Amino acid sequence: MSERKYTSDRKDKRPKKRFSKLLEGDVEINYKNVALLSNFITERKKIAPRRMIGSTSSQQRKISKEIKKARYMALLPYTVDHK
To answer: Domains along the chain?
Structure first.
């Protein structure tokens, strides 16, 4: 009888978690810093998910809150301009 070996192939093929280089050091997440916040938005102007950014959950909450403030203050667009 042949035995099957259950190996962790999924773990081996999974890419390593990349941490956000934009949030290293003493970077303050602020709604006025539009250049920094625009890095966390997709080309369709949606807030990018954590797995794409590489941020922690607390950083993601701060980022999304500041993006929403910047949108309300009309510093960032809500959507792509439709034609």
So the answer is: 19-72 (4.10.640.10)
